[in-house]
Amino acid sequence: MSTRHPTLATPFAERANQATHPLTNYLFRLMELKRSNLCLSADVQSARQLLDLAEKAGPAIVVFKTHYDLISGWDYNPQIGTGAKLAVLARKHGFLIFEDRKFVDIGKTVQMQYTAGTARIIEWAHITNANIDAGKDMVRALAEAAAKWKERINYEVKTSVTVGTPVSEHFDDAEEPSEDGRRLDPREQNGGFYRDGRDADGRKGSIVSITTVTQSFEPVDSPRLSKNMTEGDEVLFPGIEEPPSDRGLLLLAQMSSRGCLMTKEYTQACVEVAREHKSFVMGFVSQESLNTEPEDNFIHMTPGCKLPPQGEGENGHVEGDGLGQQYNTPSKLINVCGVDIVIVGRGITTAMDPQKEAERYQREAWRAYLRRVGQ
Ligand code: 6AU
């Protein structure tokens, strides 16, 4: 760990002013406002449990971390699905969404995994992360995808509908992909009927008109994640504006697991890549602060965090999980190792009362931060 890098003694409010990434600036201000440097790792089984946890723990946290691929019943609908619902809760309680996707592949593949496919991570996750074993071009590829997406999101799809009488050449049997690339059931394009006018049961239907949908892009100002969701969508966490539409990346620089194969050279390469992509890379998932150059102001988020059971004192020993995970207390990680945000999963999710436990972690982690900056 760097010895007393200036960021270790600098309050988050000041680091916000120095931040080059708009989302890092926002996150530091949110942390001061909520007096929280806690990220909840919501590794639960179902989408219902996930949303319930976000609703309950939302007030205590600043980042909500997901692994969308371990959630059963994840609804991929971009407007009303799980990501969009999470975005509504993020607006209401004031937290950022971090999809812990750990991208690692060639540039083109990670671009597609990030922006397209089933989950369309970029649509609902403010932050994601990457393992840079595949090389630094992958980070550039993700940065370019995020920049392109941001450019596009500032234009809202305007839909206009016209109705007319069908002509025979409209009824060709080839399936066409929808706007989002999905193969459409021919009935989806034809009001519930197959193209020869039969419905699914083989009955003839009579077609009196055909609807044409035209889409164009118009500029919009709002950076909100999900533009089409209305129910409860207007509730905005007080005291701060909506987060910017910029996306952020954390580099997986060190891991909490026993026997981790990431070398010092790998970690150093992460730091160098981060410095090259300051407008996209916010910082690191790491076990210690990696800020060493005077102008470094990266944010550090750290998993492998647990408090000893109540009554054992904040520095008591915490056992690993028997599957390689190792734990440290918030006090050690924040004060000694110099990290900014602790990532807590099972310490909260398996508690009898996850809401109260999240509040206890929030208090402990914030107290450790205040001690570190001498407040
Ligand atoms: O608190 P836990 O042990 O229940 O959960 C820790 C969470 C899990 C891991 O996938 C993740 O943190 N994690 C990561 C991340 C965030 O990338 C890196 C790491 O080194 N260790 C780790 O546990 O969702």
UniProtKB/TrEMBL annotation:
Keywords: Decarboxylase, Lyase, Pyrimidine biosynthesis
EC number: 4.1.1.23
One GO CC term on file: cytosol
Biased composition (Basic and acidic residues): 179-188
Domain called Orotidine 5'-phosphate decarboxylase: residue spans: 37-361
Pfam families: OMPdecase
Presence of keyword Lyase: yes
Top-level enzyme category: lyase
One Gene Ontology MF term: orotidine-5'-phosphate decarboxylase activity
Keyword Disulfide bond: no
Record-annotated active site: D100, K102, D105
Pathway this chain belongs to: Pyrimidine metabolism; UMP biosynthesis via de novo pathway; UMP from orotate: step 2/2
Binding site for substrate: D43, K65, S256, Q325, G345, R346
Region (Disordered): 166-200
InterPro entries cross-referenced by the UniProt entry: Aldolase_TIM, OMPdecase, OMPdecase_AS, OMPdeCOase_dom, RibuloseP-bd_barrel
GO biological process, any: 'de novo' UMP biosynthetic process
Record family assignment: Belongs to the OMP decarboxylase family.
Protein name: Orotidine 5'-phosphate decarboxylase
